[in-house]
Amino acid sequence: MTIVPNETYHIYNQGNNGEKLFYGDEDYIIFLKLCRKYISPNCDILAYCLMPNHFHFLIHTNENSARTRQVGHLNLCELSNGFRLLQSTYAQYINNRENRTGSLFRQKIKAKSLDSGDENYGWIAFNYIHLNPLKAGLVEDLDYWKFSSFLDYAGVRSGTLCNKELAYELLTVDTKNFIKDTYSEFSEEKIKKIF
Fold first, then answer.
1. Is residue 147 domain-resident?
2. Does the CA dihedral 11-16-22-28 come out positive or negative?
3. C-alpha angle with apex 49: 116 to 112, nearest 5 degrees?
4. CATH classification of the domain holding 21
5. Domain that holds residue 146
6. Are the C-beta atoms of 164 and 152 separated by less than 8 Å?
7. Residue 160 forms part of a structural domain
8. Sign of the C-alpha dihedral, residues 16, 82, 29, 11?
9. What is the pLDDT of residues 122-167, one digit of tens each?
């Protein structure tokens, strides 16, 4: 994953062969705690959504994100190493508990810079990420999906994983119309640009 400081990225991955990543509420919570440990020190998390078989993050990088370190024979940036540690630690936890072996995650995590062009692709990704549980038919209302930053921005919960102030600034989030704006539809053409 090539990372440039001071840019906004959509980062996502899924279970190997589309397999389940999260088996119950406790798994989502453990994954989020690992995010705080391995991802938060290396970037600002603007939004996230954990789905049964995949995850999405909208992050903003800083100087530390792109700083490199030697990990075995690999030269990784801190953000890549953070996601490597997140996935490997979580996979060990699930593999031990579920008596399974092998890869839990698809091998290559995806990262798409959203800072090119005139369109506010960060805002599109922000909404896309929050709408994921609704579009997948997991809930009829976003208020019912606990494993997303939507509830924090909607004022229902006061989570601290996301840097909401930075998100408001970078993405021009309208705090008064946040809930209505989240349900905005975007063209398939625009959505393709966030992947």
1. yes
2. negative
3. 25
4. 3.30.70.1290
5. 7-194
6. yes
7. yes
8. negative
9. 999 999 999 999 999 999 889 899 999 999 999 999 999 999 999 9
Q: List, for residues 23-58, the tens digit of each pLDDT value.
A: 999 999 999 999 999 999 999 999 999 999 999 999
Alpha-carbon distance of 19 to 2, in angstroms, equals 26
What does the pLDDT look like over 76-115, one tens digit per residue? 999 999 999 999 999 999 999 999 999 999 988 999 999 8
Q: How many CB atoms lie within 10 A of CB 58?
A: 30
Q: Is residue 57 part of a domain?
A: yes
Q: Are 77 and 3 within 8 A, CB to CB?
A: yes
102-132 as b/e: b if 16+ CB within 10 A: eebbbeebebeebeeeeeebbbbbbbbbbbb
- The number of distinct structural domains making up the chain is 1
pTM of the model: 0.93
Indicate whether 1 belongs to any domain: no
Residue 27 CA, chain-centre distance (Å), reads 16
3-class DSSP state of 30: helix
Structure tokens at 58: 């909208």
Q: What is the DSSP letter of 17?
A: G
Q: What type of residue is 185?
A: E
